[in-house]
Amino acid sequence: MFLRWQQWNRRARFVLWIIALLGVAAAMPLGAVRMEMEKSSKQVEYVFDYRDIVDVSERQARPQGFLTEKLAMLKESGITTMAVYESSLKELQLSGRLTFYSSRDAALLQNKFEQADQNFTYILFNGPEEEKMIGPIVRQALDRSEAVYSSWSYGGRNGMVVEMPIAEAIMKTMDFDPMSLQTIQDAGFRILPRFSDRVKPYDQAETEAVLAKLKAYGVNRVLFDGDKVKGASDQAMDNSLYQFGELLKKYDMGVAAIENLKKPQEGINKLAYITNYNVVRLYSLSENDGMTMTSDAIGDRFLLAAKDRNIRMFFMNGTTQSNTDKAKVVDNLDRLAEAMSEKNGIVEKLSKAGFASGTAKAFDYEQPSWNKPVRAIVAAGAIALIALLVGAFIPGVYIPVFVIGLFGSAGMYKLNSSVMEQGLALGAAIAAPTLALVWVMNRIYSRTVGDRRVVGGVDWTVGRSKQSPTPQQPGAVYENGNKMKWLFPALSTGRRFGLALNWFIVATLISLMAVPIVFGLLNNITYNLVLEQFRGVSLLHLAPIALVAVYVLLYNSQMSVGRLRALLSKPITLTWIILAGIIGIIGYYYLSRTGNSGQVSSVELVIRHFLESTFGVRPRFKEFLLAHPLLLLGLFLSLRYRAAWLLIIIGSIGQLSMVDTFAHLHTPLYISMIRVLLGLGTGMVIGCILILAWQLVEGAIRKWAPAIIHKFVE
Description:
There is one protein chain. By secondary structure, the chain is α/β, with parallel strands linked by helices. The protein is built from 29 helices and 17 strands. The longest helix has about 45 residues, at about 670-714. Mean pLDDT is about 85; it is low at about 450-460, about 465-485 and about 710-714.
């Protein structure tokens, strides 16, 4: 019975590889659909914060003239859109619409004594037009908060007295300033309104009236201010997010999602779903970066964002600084306008790369009818890879692991399909690179390579044959009559290089089997828009390395229980503690370099810029400068030196990194392909150079070291 089970298990292993390959093949059409989607939106939109321009204007001698001049300058530079916020008394005063006073200031203004026990807010509109346009939105906000107010006038200007302290009155959120909207439209800009969730409770009729007015100004997309989208606070009671989303659909408006927030704005995912993912990703250039970065650096950052992260809206902020040397307040409006319009500036640089200035559009996304059954095949391929990985470490479990995986995945799909898909994608992403290196180690083990020895003037390698009394390599002889210990003829340099290169290519192909599985399972617009992210990236960066290390240390052609027992019985020495500390530091640094938040040196930034400008796409440093060359060198050396297996463990970083490149689902698929191929090509070239250098050094040592030692002894 046991022998029959072993036969079934060996057959199951072959079948699992077939299923995995079928999963890879099934994912290819899904990749083609994704690439077509990524081509559907190429225009980029440049947005400036209108409030910042108003703030800068208020610091000038003639604010209105300055505002008009700078709007014209920004329009000419290539800025297409102005972002406007919901109003407040403070913002309306900065815009020159009204002036507000405390009770004390109002009394001084009228040459009266301040009334005792009164702390009201006095408002005067700056003219009849302001009273007509701004008065209604102020009264609407006061009525919403049930504030008590009455008419007031002074110096021929009308206004009101609000029975509320200024500190409270300025916090009241009001509708968008219609005069600012008209100014922006007259200057030739599109309008991007920034809604907040500060107007409570959510009012559907009031919100629709606002959207109708904005639609008249040509608004086709909205952005959100604060940590919540409009309607998020009242969702539980009033289903307000759904109501707001339906209004956006009615008026054909999409939303903009801000990149790299510490925490996504609450409700953005649900709102994106309601609007059928009419979403555009937006990158915001900080005030400090806008003031300090060079034009070329800003252009490179914008280009990278558009090309590598599918960003289609760029938001710029204006700011001022006090310059003590010039004894004046300086702003960044002119430098940003110059960065936009200069030769090879932002607009020209992105246009040359295929991202013309215009209105940002959402990706054309539509799931094909055959999507679900094809993804089911891809899921089966992922389960097969995971079963193969488990079977590589625990013999005889291919069939039960695969069956459990099928039923478990089906149950998880019913509970939470997203968790199921991410779990299988992560499992496949870990399994494929690990299986690739396990395959490599088995090829090395099959040749029973050990230490080098010279017997009778001939190079031999020492090894043990545990599979059979007959070694697989021809020309082997017994060592001192020991039938389990052999001397093998050492391979020539050319043969070793050929085997190393062949193993490197095959291992890479096995590792890349995970790539179609990952993008096939996670073939959803939510990942492209970063509304949902692939979890477990840190585990992906560690698990294959750890598993390969375990396989190297504890496994040969089969698991060595004695080796494990011997390792566990060793006493913990200071050397082991120091070694563990060094490994921990290296691991921490390695993990700190992963993800978007990893820090890089100034030298590396220069090299990155060179690679970007030369190839258009930057291969990953840890692949082409570290992992791929060391893996190729390790495979070459492992055919003579057992210690070279350490290089193979380090080389696993490159194999998993290739898979991780495609786990960045917001990056266009063709960009990831180019990045991986560039890394492989340059890494193999550097690896060949390392092999050549090793041969030269080894030859020199072999030739000159004995004579030097002999001379030194004498």
